[in-house]
Amino acid sequence: MAEKTTGKPATGKPTVAIVGAGSLATFLAVALNDAGFTITEIVARDSPRSRRHARSLAAKVGAQTVTAHSAVLDATLLWFCVPDREIRGAASALADHLAARALAHKKGKVRFAFHSSGALLSRELEPLRKAGAAVASVHPLMTFVAEARPSLTGVPFAMEGDDAATRVARRIVREMGGESFSLPAARKAAYHAWATLTSPLLLAFLVTIEEAARAAGLTRQDARRKSLPIIRQTLANYSRLGPAQSFSGPLVRGDAETVARHLAVLKKHPGAREVYVALARAALRGLPVKNRDGLKRLLRD
Ligand SMILES: NC(=O)c1ccc[n+]([C@@H]2O[C@H](COP(=O)([O-])OP(=O)(O)OC[C@H]3O[C@@H](n4cnc5c(N)ncnc54)[C@H](OP(=O)(O)O)[C@@H]3O)[C@@H](O)[C@H]2O)c1
Fold this sequence. Notes:
- By secondary structure, the protein is of the alpha/beta class.
- The protein folds into two domains: 16-186, NAD(P)-binding Rossmann-like Domain (Rossmann fold, 3-Layer(aba) Sandwich), CATH 3.40.50.720; 200-300.
- The protein has twelve helices and eight strands.
- An eight-stranded mixed beta sheet has the order 3-2-1-4-5-6-7-8, with helices on both faces.
- Helix 1 links the parallel strand 1 (16-19) and strand 2.
- Helix 11 packs antiparallel against helix 12.
């Protein structure tokens, strides 16, 4: 890949190099570009597949495709959008590259580095901090997949890290329509457990619903189509009325015999039964349930 001096800030906003070209990177690069930020480089791994993805993203935002060895690093901000396990290694490679360029009197301009892991702390970027950058973790509480482009309006971004870096991150998030909040370092793992329940494990629950529908003789596709109206209404009620007032069904009525029938029929679908029991227990803990003792006994075995 040819080294080439890339775009300069047109607006006084930080210029951004994105590391990675996966789900978050693809969304973020376009969102930043739309909000008036110049994307200078997309940093890919040195494999044909990675470079192909990076080229396609770079073309969308007018950036250069580079690797950790060919990057010019003339952006003020490096934003790592790589899997959690890759963040430290990628930061280390780019810190080494910055040091090599400094020795060759080609000084980079990197002043800030962010990663977007929900679970890991900003200290994963320690190699860049040692190279003089202020670092932060900046995690959007939103799901990004290939075929969807969610709005960032009102989306919370959890921040943790150096003051100078979180200050810049707050400004960028505001300009993309999101809302920042500070997360104490000690709370990050718990925060991400919660975040994982909000979307990935909610989807795991929806797949379990499809599995239970098979016991009633429905195909997965049919179950999905038939269950979406009630799922949508439940979410609308939860949003407008809160959980307690949205709670209907045999548990709120205390119909233990009905629940016993469910448990019996789901014996042939042990995965779905396990989830049913876990959620019914959660209902006993957190929702207005009648005949609590009878249901508790039933759910004990
Ligand atoms: N997706 C979401 O909904 C979401 C939401 C919030 C936060 N995040 C965070 O965003 C980060 C990325 O997640 P993702 O879902 O976007 O993952 P992803 O779709 O798997 O994309 C990861 C990207 O990183 C690239 N990559 C891996 N190692 C690299 C390296 N050493 N140097 C340069 N590029 C490298 C991969 O390219 P190759 O494998 O082709 O080389 C791929 O383009 C994670 O920290 C995640 O927690 C994701």
